[in-house]
């Protein structure tokens, strides 16, 4: 999708929990050997605030920074990766009401780690349709025990707690969406389902046994081809966004990729996409952890708040969500 007419990013914010030292967590016996050498230094850990509370906090800040009146926001999309604090409860309605009021059309979006970036794509389509001229996209997650083990649930990842918010507008902003590509290979949903039967209710096993289900998948005949399928989908989406923007990886000033890391000198996710560590935000990601659906928004907020963006810079936001779905967008800083 080429961005016609223009859609702008009016604000991007993050509400980050206090961070704890990974080395201290290792000393406490929380981090298994498989996750001790990934390169993470600190992880955001919320002691009380739930994901929607942090999302609402980020949203209020984003609305203020956007200089929009809350009444102008006609759409709120809230993306999450994990439990939102209550079962059978509309977290998007809470975030909307706590940030801009009772009036916006509010929907929850869930596509694992791609939820935030996917919601931005949905919001941009709503804006182009004329449904509203301003939209709020939020994310929020808290990876608290005993429901989940933040330190040992997925390979190459330690989960951090945060809320994020992005305000999109048809009128003005600090960045313009140049291109936005999405893609999917839904045959890969079994990677984290394995051979496990469906349960009658949530929380039947704690912590959620994702490592066990992943190991089940790797015993299946389709497992050897999975990584190739994943790379094909990710590359196609990323390359489409670059092509529609008429640029290449070297033209990108900053590439915000998911905050995961293999360590040990192994090829990292930003490298397989053609970016250097300097272009990536790993220096930031290693100090907060993987923020569920919010890595891209948090990275953009970090760049904005720390004066790392200049007029004319191109920023790539790229992500993938278990399933697998993919998204990539090129932004031009105004």
Enumerate the strands of the largest sheet in spatial order, edge to edge or round the barrel.
Answer: 5-4-6-7-1-8-11-10-9
Low-confidence stretches: none
What helical percentage do the residues reach? 25-40%
The CATH homologous superfamily of the largest domain is termed Thiolase/Chalcone synthase
Mean pLDDT: 96
The Rg value, from CA coordinates, equals 19 Å
Count of β-strands: 11
User: What proportion of the residues form beta strands (DSSP E)?
Assistant: 15-25%
Largest sheet: 9 strands, mixed
The best one-word shape is: globular
The CATH class of the largest domain: Alpha Beta
Helix and strand succession? EEHEHEHEHEEEHHEHHHEE
Instruction: For the record, give the distance between the C-alpha atoms at the N and C termini, rounded to a whole number.
Output: 20 Å
The CATH topology of the largest domain is given as Peroxisomal Thiolase, Chain A, domain 1
**CATH architecture classification name of the largest domain:** 3-Layer(aba) Sandwich
Number of self-contained structural domains: 2
Number of helices: 9
Q: What structural class should be given to the helix and strand makeup?
A: alpha/beta
Description:
The mean pLDDT is about 95. A nine-stranded mixed beta sheet has the order 5-4-6-7-1-8-11-10-9, sandwiched between helices. It has helices at about 20-25, 50-65, 90-100, 115-130, 210-215, 225-245, 270, 280-285, 295-305, and strands at about 10-15, 20, 40-45, 75-80, 105-110, 135-140, 160-170, 175-185, 255, 315-320, 325-334. It folds into two domains: about 10-175, Thiolase/Chalcone synthase (Peroxisomal Thiolase, Chain A, domain 1); about 180-334, Thiolase/Chalcone synthase (Peroxisomal Thiolase, Chain A, domain 1). It starts with 7 loop residues before the first strand and ends with a strand. With about 325 residues, the chain is of the alpha/beta class. It has nine helices and eleven strands. Helix 3 links the parallel strand 4 (about 75-80) and strand 5 (about 105-110). The radius of gyration is 19 Å and the shape is globular. The longest helix is centred in the last third of the chain and has 20 residues, at about 225-245.
């Amino acid at each position: 999708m080429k961005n016609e007419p223009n859609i702008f990013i009016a604000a991007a914010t993050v509400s980050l929990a206090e961070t704890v030292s990974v080395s201290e967590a290792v000393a406490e016996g929380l981090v298994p050997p498989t996750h001790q050498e990934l390169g993470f230094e600190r992880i955001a850990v919320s002691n009380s605030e739930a994901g929607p509370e942090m999302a609402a906090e980020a949203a209020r800040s984003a609305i203020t920074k956007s200089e929009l009146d809350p009444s102008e926001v006609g759409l709120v999309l809230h993306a999450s990766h994990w439990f939102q604090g209550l079962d059978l409860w509309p977290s998007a309605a809470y975030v909307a009401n706590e940030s801009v009021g009772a009036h916006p059309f509010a929907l929850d979006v869930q596509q694992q780690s791609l939820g935030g970036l996917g919601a931005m794509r949905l919001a941009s389509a709503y804006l182009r349709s004329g449904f509203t001229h301003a939209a709020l996209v939020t994310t929020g997650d808290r990876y608290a025990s005993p429901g989940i083990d933040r330190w040992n649930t997925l390979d190459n990842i330690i989960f951090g707690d945060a809320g994020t918010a992005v305000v999109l507008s048809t009128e003005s902003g600090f960045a313009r969406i140049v291109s936005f590509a999405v893609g999917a290979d839904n045959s890969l949903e079994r990677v984290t389902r394995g051979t496990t039967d469906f349960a009658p209710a949530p929380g039947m096993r704690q912590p959620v046994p994702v490592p066990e289900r992943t190991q089940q998948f790797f015993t299946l005949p389709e497992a050897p081809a999975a990584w190739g399928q994943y790379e094909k989908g990710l590359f196609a989406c990323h390359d489409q966004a670059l092509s529609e923007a008429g640029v290449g990886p070297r033209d990108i000033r900053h590439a915000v990729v998911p905050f995961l890391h293999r360590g040990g000198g192994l090829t990292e996710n930003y490298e397989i996409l053609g970016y250097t560590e300097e272009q990536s935000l790993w220096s930031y990601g290693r100090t907060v952890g993987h923020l569920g659906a919010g890595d891209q928004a948090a990275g953009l907020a970090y760049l904005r708040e720390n004066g790392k963006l200049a007029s004319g810079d191109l920023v790539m936001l790229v992500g993938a969500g278990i399933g697998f779905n993919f998204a990539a967008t090129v932004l031009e800083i105004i």
